[in-house]
Amino acid sequence: MSPAPRMKKASSVAVRLAVVLGGLILLAAAGYFLLVAPKKNEAKSLNQQIVQLDQQISEQKAQATQAAGLSKILVADYNKLQSAMPNEAKMDELYLQLYTIAKDTGVEFNSLQPGTVVAASAYQVLPLAVTFQGSFAQLSDFLYRLQSLVLVDNHKLSAKGRLFTVDQVSFAEGDKGFPQLRATLEIDAFVYGPPGGAATSTTASTTPATGATTVSTTGTTTTSSSGGSTTSATGGG
Amino acid sequence: MASLESERISAVSSALSYRVPWSNILGQIALVMPSGVKLTTLTATAPVTANSQLTLSAPGVANLSIAGWTYSEESAVLLVTRLKILPALANVTLVSTTINAGVSPVTYNFSVTANIRAPGVTS
Q1: Nearest C-alpha neighbor of A145 from the set A104, A185, A91
Q2: What is the DSSP letter of B88?
Q3: pLDDT per residue of chain A (237 residues) written in tens, 0 to 9
Q4: Which of A57, A105, B6, B47 could crosslink A142 through cysteines, CB 3.0-4.6 Å?
Q5: For chain B, domain boundaries
C-alpha cells in the first residue's frame, strides 16, 4: 500500500475519533447542563431553605426560652421582684390586671374563679380558673400579654405586673359559633413567702347566664360584666 | 438585704421555671395548620406546674389533644407530619380518623395527641 492512502485512512480515523470525542463532550456538556446543573441548583436552593429553617427554629427556640423566662436572673430590681411576686395576695390588683389584658385584647370574660391557695417552699400559689370568649388571635394575644408581664431579658428581670403561669388551656367552639372560641384557662399567680402571712381563703360565685362574674376574696369584691369591670376593695386582700 | 433579695430572685426563678410559652406553641400550631383542616377542640396541660393540687398527665402520657375535621384523610396526616416538626411537641400521634359518610361533602373527624415538652427541654 502506498503511503498516500495509508495517510488518508489514518486521517479519516482521526477525524472520526475527533467527531466521536466531540460528540461525547457535547453529550456530557448537554447532560450536565440539562440534568446535573438544575439538580445542583435545586440542591443549593434546598440547602438554603434548610439553613433558613434551622435559623427560624433557633430563633423560635430562643424566643420560647426567653418567653418562658428560662434565662437565669442575674439582675433584678427589688420593685420588679415585688411587682412580679408581692408579699400579699392583692387579689383586687390581680383581677384588675387580668381584666385590663382582656379588655386590651378584646376577649370577653365569662367567669373567674379562684381556687384554694397551695403552699410551696418559698411562695404560695393562687390558682384561678378563667373562662372567656374570643377569636383564636385574641386568645393567643391574651396569653402572650399575660406572659409578657414578667420577662427575663438578657438575665435582667423585667416586670410590668404579676407573674402568671398557665397550667391548662382548653379551647372549644364559642357561644356564637366558629370562629369565636370559648377558652378555659387554669392560671397560677404567686405570693412570696411561706403560708400564713398572705391572703388565704377565697370564695367565688359565677353567674354565666348574665355574663357577669362575682368573685369575692377576704375583704375584696370584684365584679365584671362583658369585658368591663369594676373592682372595689373593702380592706384586706 | 442581699440575701433576702437573692431568696426572692430564686423564688421568682422557681415560679418562672413552670411557665410554658403557650402563645408561642399555639402560634406554631396555627402556622402549620394545612388548609381545609378545622379544629373543634384543643386541650393542653402544662408538663410541669407549681400547683401541686392540679392533676397532670403522667410522664410520657399525652398532654395535648386536638380534635377536628377535614375534607380528606390526607389533610389529617399532613397535619400530624407538620406537627411533628414543631420543637415544642413530641410523640405526635394520629389517634383516629372516622368518616362522616352521612354529610355532603364527605368529611373526616380526626383526633391527634402529643406531648408538650417541659420548659427548657429541647429535642
Answers
A1: A104
A2: T
A3: 556 667 677 788 888 999 999 999 999 999 888 888 888 888 888 888 888 777 777 766 666 665 555 567 766 677 878 888 888 888 888 888 999 999 999 998 888 888 888 888 888 889 999 999 999 899 999 999 998 888 887 777 878 889 899 999 999 988 888 888 899 999 999 988 876 554 444 444 343 433 334 443 333 333 333 333 333 333 333
A4: A105
A5: 2-116
E strands in B1-123 = 37-45, 64-70, 89-100, 107-116
Third-level CATH fold of B2-116: Alpha-Beta Plaits (3.30.70)
φ, ψ at A83 (rounded to 5°): -70, -40
> How long is chain B?
123
Question: Residue A102 contacts by C-beta under 8 Å, 6 or more apart in sequence?
Answer: A108, A109, A132, A142, A227
Tell me the three cell numbers of residue B115: 406531648
- For an interface test with A, the pick among B37, B51, B123 (most A C-beta atoms closer than 10 Å) comes out as B51
Chain A partners within 8 Å of B50 (Cβ): 118, 120, 123, 125, 165, 188, 190
Cα distance between the two ends of chain B? 40
d(CA A44, CA B70): 35
Set of cell numbers at residue A19: 467527531
The CA radius of gyration of chain B, in Å to the nearest whole number, is: 18
Report the alpha-carbon distance of residue A190 to residue B73 in Å, rounded. 45
Pick from B11, B12, B87: which is nearest to A57 by CB? B87
